[in-house]
Structure formats: C-alpha cells, structure tokens
Amino acid sequence: MRFFSLRQTSRAVLLSMAGLTLTLSANAATVKPAAAQASAAQSSVDRLTPANSTDGIIALVNENAILKSELVDAIEQTQARAKAAGEPIANSAQLQSEVLNALILRELQLSMVKRAGLSADEAEINQRLGQIAQAEGLNSIAALQQRLDAAQPGSYANLRAKLIEEASIQALQQRQITRRVRISEQDIDAFLASPEAKRLNQSEYQTIHVRVPYIDDYSRLSAAQREEALKVAQALRTRLLEPNVNVAEAVAASQGSYPIPLQGGDMGFHKAASLPTELSSKITKLDVGTVSEPLLTPEGIDIIKLADKKASNTMLIPQWHTRHILVKVDDLQTDALAEQKINDLYEQLRGGADFASLASTYSDDPGSAGRGGDLDWVSEEDMVGPFEATMKNTAVGDYSAPFKTQFGWHILKVDGKRDQDISEQYRRNMARQALYQRLAPQAQEDWLQELRAGAYIQILG
User: Which end of the chain has fewer CB atoms surrounding its CB within 10 Å, N or C?
Assistant: First the structure.
C-alpha cells in the first residue's frame, strides 16, 4: 500500500502535469513585481486567451524569452487545478500578471540550474513516473508512455522533461535556502522548552487511507460524476466508522458499480514525522476509531481513519561497531589490481593477521586507517547499500569476505552490536526540522527577490 499526498492547490499556479506549484502572492514562493512592472504586465496581457493570442514574445528574462502561448497554457493549467481544488479562479488581469510573474521566476531558476550544473536523480524521476502510472491505473512506466503518446505524440517526453525541471528547481531551492537558514543549538534548546515542542512526539499511528479516484480529469467531470464519487466516499466513510471493521470488505462493498477501483487500505503504523505534512496534520488530530470527512484532492476523494495509536518514550535503533579495509579503484590502480590486493589481505587475515594492523598499513581510507580501520558505531543507512548488507550479515567478532562498492574493494569486521536509544537526538533533529520549516519560506522569498532584482526583465506590450 502507498500513501497519497493531499496536495493543497488553493490559490496556486501549477505549471505542469507533474503538479509543479508556483504560488501566488499569498505564498512565499512567488515575489510580487514592482507596481510599474505589474501594471505593464496587466496592460500587455489583458484577458489573454487562446482565441485572441497571436503567438509572440510576452517577456524577456535575461537572454531568454517567454512566449504568449506559454502564458496562455500556464493560465489554463492554473485555472484547471484551482477548479479541481474547489476554488475556481477567473481569467483576470491580476491572475495573468501573477502567472507571468511565476513564469519569470521559473525561467530565472532554470537558468541558474543550468549554470550550476544541477541534474535530477534518474531514480527519483522514474519513481515519480511510476506513481503517476499507478494513479492512472497502469502497471508500468512503459504503459504510461504508450497511453500518453497514443493520445498525443511526444506527451511522455514532455512530461518527463517537466518532472526533471521540477526536481532540478527543487534541488536548487533546497541548496539556496539551506545556505540562508542558520539554526544554532541555542535555538533548538529554546524550541524544545516551548509548548510547540509537545508535538514532537514519537507516537505511531495506524491509518486506513482509501482514495475514490475520479473517472476523468477533474476539469472534464460533469456535476453528476463528481456527485457519484462523493457518494461512494461518504458510503465508505460510514462503513469505516464501524468498530473492528474489515477494511477490504468495506472497500469492496463501497466499490459497487463505481467504474474506477478504489485505492489504498490499511497503511500500518507510521510515526507522524514520517508522514507527508498534510497527512500528519490531519491524522494527529483524529481520535482512535474516528474517520475524517471526505478530503477533496485533484486526483480523487480521500478518506482517512485512525485505527490505532502507540505511544513511545524511547527510540531504539540497531548499531554496529565496524572496522574496514579499503582498496580504492582509481587511475593509479585498476579494478583487477585492487581485487588482487584485497584478496591477498584476506588470505593474511585467514592466516591469523591482526585486522587493525592490516588496516593501518594498507587501507586507502584516510579517515579510518590511522585508527586501525575503526568507523565507530554505524547505524542503518549510514553506509552504502553493499556495505550495510555485508555488515548486517557478519557476526560479531568476525570479518567478511572481500566485497565491492563504488569506492573500491572492502573487507569489514564487526566488533560489536547494540540497540542505541536516540530519543534525545531524534527530538533535537525534529526541532531543527520544525525551525527550518518555519524559517524557510522567508528565506526563499528573500532569495527570489534578490534573484529577480539582479536580472534583466522586460515586459513587452
């Protein structure tokens, strides 16, 4: 089962199928232009629609241009998303000015992405495409590509490009905001002493989360189709209110003749901090056994029930006290030579050689070689996948066979294992995250203001 993101699209400018949000004036992600620029923008794009737009340049942003057709498309997508969120927006001069401003900021950020050489993680892009495919009732990315390109050739490539742009912009924003937000240990202490820190609990919540998907894009749904989806959601909510309800039976009974399969079910236990922000804020307000009202999203109607809750005052994680010997593969040492060297060291260990002594003499890891290869206590996800897997499969007091990672060839030794209470560390990390979320919007707005102020921007009439 997977979680569904309850994306709030109120007063948002959504520039792509991927759900990229460039917010309006109430949101810190968008900076209002100066009054003169806003006036010029409003006069030059007055009630711009596909019917009255002859394509041309609407704005110059440094060395790049924004076309009228881009503005029209962005306005239409903004209106469609706002309508899906239940808050329709009229095509006014103010909306056009806001959307144009968002396009300008997007262009500036994309230019900065190119200059910085940022690139999206292919695995992340494929994961997002897989989620979109699943939401469309498809079982693979290939099926999504086939459907999109059958409807309009090139649609899949455009979607993938939009997702890559979105991920790159998010990476850029994260980098810029992180540089600006400074949180001291004293700030964390003050936060933990405040009433707000009470929400940094370690309770786990068992949720039942079911979505009634719309049978078509929200903008194309008839009033009858919307009402049909809402009736299914309300019927499901009524069934889930029953104590000790069989979730699968409740979902099946609510499905009825509805043409799209209901999605979701029992999601198991999760800490509030591991849930998306929108879900966390709704789930933690529910009492055990209660069910949320139908939650309208652009993709469907969500119902969430809090089935159970477990409180915990401690957080224990497994840790391994580990040493290793690294033989790097680089321009001076081929993979074959490195493998031969690590095998020689392995044979010495089997002959009774001291692990720490070999690590001090032969390991290519400058950070641990001087300590006999000692990496101290290592937690899950601290190390790369092959290293962690080998570490977990090595008994305390024993050493592994040679294995390879992207860093080269290794042998590791596990000196000990323990369950470590990291409750205080967890609370401090959560406090840091809460403070960051509080300070980040202003930091982002300041950065975007500076980015725009340093750019050449001309609104064309």
Answer: C
Predicted confidence band of residue 276 (pLDDT cuts 50, 70, 90): low
Q: What is the mean pLDDT of the chain?
A: 84
Domain membership flag for residue 192: no
Percentage of the residues of the chain whose pLDDT score is greater than 90:
56
Angstrom distance (rounded) from CA 379 to CA 384: 11
User: Which DSSP string do the residues of 333-377 spell out, in sequence order?
Assistant: B-HHHHHHHHHHHHHHHHTT--HHHHHHHH---TTTGGGTTEEEE
Residue 177 has pLDDT above 70, yes or no: yes
Closest to 145 measured CA to CA, from 135, 134, 155: 155
Q: What is the pLDDT of residues 195-237, one digit of tens each?
A: 777 666 667 889 999 999 998 887 788 888 989 999 999 999 9
* 53, 69 contact by CB (below 8 A): yes
Domain count, the chain: 3
Does 221 share its domain with 286? yes
In the chain, % helix, strand, coil (3-state, to 5) comes to 50, 20, 35
Inside any domain, residue 223: yes
Per the CB < 8 A criterion, the answer to whether 10 and 82 are in contact is: yes
Q: What is the CATH number of the domain that holds 216?
A: 3.10.50.40
Q: What residues make up the domain containing 243?
A: 202-310
Residues 6+ apart with CB under 8 A from 146: none
Contacts of 52 (CB under 8 A, 6+ apart): none
Strand partners, 213: 300
Q: Could you tell me the CA-to-CA distances from 178 to 173, 443, 444, 450, 453 in Å, in that order? A: 8, 9, 10, 16, 21
The token duo for 176 is 């810029």
Whether 314 and 423 have beta carbons less than 8 Å apart is answered as: yes
Pair (62, 166) in one structural domain: yes
Q: Are residues 72 and 167 in the same domain?
A: yes
Q: Please choose, from the candidates 123, 113, 130, the residue with its C-alpha nearest in 3D space to the C-alpha of residue 168.
A: 113
- Is residue 277 in some structural domain? yes
